[in-house]
Design goal:
Blueprint: E1 8-11, H1 26-42, E2 49-53, H2 59-71, E3 76-79, H3 107-121, E4 126-130, H4 136-145, E5 149-151, E6 157-160, E7 167-170, E8 176-178, E9 181-183
Parallel strand pairs: 1-2, 2-3, 3-4, 4-5
Antiparallel strand pairs: 6-7, 8-9
Helix pairs in contact: 1-2, 2-3, 3-4
Length: 191
């Protein structure tokens, strides 16, 4: 895939994969990215690497992950995957089901985490915002939090160029009625 992919995501965030989230620990993430970047170098590949993180990480993990991503010159961070910690806010019987929770129930948590990474990364690594993007307003909120590109559950077109230029993003063509006014669809194309 390294010759054909627009980017490769290292997903350390799925709560449904046993022990996968242990890669949020500094030493394990450091070793993983070191091995991946070495293999990328051996393959003489310039494919951008992104890392997808959990919304359930704590402040120390955010700081540690930030340092490691910067050290390895990761192109983008995808914030965030599904959560195990927000089921108590659900009102229906499905809140007792096992597995990760995504969509609207994690939107606020995701936006908060995006903003934390935004403040620490200072534009050095791009942020792709995930979690609860189901409208133009929700996509706009991701931008306000610090994401350069919101990503929705539907197929998006996101391309990271192999050089240091901007993320090309075509995403989130939504319209939604809010207080009787239509929110413009968001379509981003960075050339």
């Amino acid at each position: 895939f390294y010759d054909d992919a627009d980017y490769i995501t290292i997903n350390i965030s799925s709560p449904n994969t046993e022990n996968l989230r242990t890669f949020h620990e500094g030493d394990k993430l450091q070793d993983l990215l070191k091995a991946i970047m070495l293999e990328r170098k051996n393959l003489k590949s310039n494919v951008p690497i992104t890392v997808k993180v959990s919304p359930d990480i704590n402040e120390d993990q955010v700081n540690q992950i930030t340092e490691i991503l910067l050290e390895h010159e990761i192109k983008a961070i995808i914030v965030s995957n599904t959560s195990e910690a927000t089921r108590d806010k659900l009102s229906n019987i499905q809140r007792h089901q096992k597995g990760g929770l995504s969509g609207k129930p994690i939107e606020e948590k995701s936006n908060h985490l995006i903003n934390k990474f935004y403040k620490l990364l200072k534009g050095k690594i791009k942020i792709i915002g995930v979690g609860g993007v189901d409208s133009g307003q929700a996509a706009y909120d991701k931008f306000i939090a610090g994401a350069v590109c919101p990503s929705c559950g539907d197929i998006d077109s996101i391309k990271l160029k192999n050089d240091d230029s901007e993320i090309k993003c075509i995403s989130c063509n939504y319209s939604k009625q809010k207080d009787g006014e239509e929110i413009e669809s968001i379509k981003i194309i960075n050339d």
